[in-house]
């Protein structure tokens, strides 16, 4: 993150790009040219898509409508790149800043004379974002009506230079490249060359440029976010905001975590650190930011809480490009805690097994301190806890003799519940069963009932619990869930607090 605070501004003119009539001849030396030399100007659309209004009246000398050629140019970008242009055949004025992207011929550039040999101008307007470069919110193309155009494929010499008619479609193709965020590129063959040429189609350099511009998430590692405590660091091995957002000047490091929400729940995220100034950002998978918290107090910590609906989310731990707190740097260790509160138990998928076997089993579970009104993972040592799980047994395993397994991981320690309902420290060879039975379609597992941690001498602890089942016919195989039932116990508040 570039600054401690962010201010949002009304959209404004970002840049102008023109396509000129000059014809240049160049000898392409393949060995000397880089593999790709596309240029990115530092702005982009929020998602890899934009809507363009197209209604250009009239026909070219070759009896092809200007409108058809403009739509074909937009479709070329959509069909050959990761960017999608959505076309609406309605008239909009490209000289009006109305939030609608459009294309049309004009005698001048919105009240100003076109520059010498200027064929067209792309105008983009933007608004700032929490991370990275500004997002484009409008992209218009103004085509110089004083020039003579036609519509054709092939070399300019064959049609354009002799008949003094320049190909409108390749001009539109070029300008729409500016609209989606590409700059001029004159090293490799490209439709984004600054001057019109014999090239009338997208080139590999153009396609790769769009992939780079809108492929930021693919360049960064995304890790699963567990409930409970996670320890990590921001350092030079991490992805940077520049890599994630593709553009801008923010070189700060960022860790990205992904998690699933199965039903409406409240999530609270907190980071603590003695060295790195943390910033928390919550976003959708396409980087729509839902919340940001940098915490402006003197410590290096931050916290963020949101009620989330069903879906997939990203949590990002970031820092500032330039440190501004005396005791906080932009590199260092942090501890991230994830708390959740919901009105029901949580799914605990995906299903896995000790030996890698497949299963259609399903698992859910949770912890409640109010008799099932709410479920969560963070409690006081004085709370009375009920911990339970539900197993949906694979159809092929129903009616078979088997066993139920309950395990708790506390740090490096693994505990299993035996048939006497005691937690015992063992390894998984042999497997300790909590009960043995003929498996039903659904198995309810009570891990603990009316458990008050303080009464058994526990004031603070974190445990990850798992339930599973196996068949007597394969005693070393256990089907269980990857997502733990997480329990964090904090000391009970004092009487004066």
CATH topology of the largest domain: Collagenase (Catalytic Domain)
Strand content bin: 35-45%
Briefly note the structural class of the backbone: mainly beta
CATH class of the largest domain: Alpha Beta
Shape: elongated
CATH architectural group of the largest domain: 3-Layer(aba) Sandwich
What is the arithmetic mean of pLDDT? 87
Number of helices: 5
By CATH's scheme, which homologous superfamily of the largest domain applies?
Collagenase (Catalytic Domain)
Number of domains: 3
- DSSP helix fraction: 10-25%
Largest sheet: 9 strands, mixed
- Euclidean distance between termini CA atoms: 36 Å
What is the CA-based Rg, rounded? 30 Å
Identify low-pLDDT runs: 3-38
**Number of separate strands:** 33
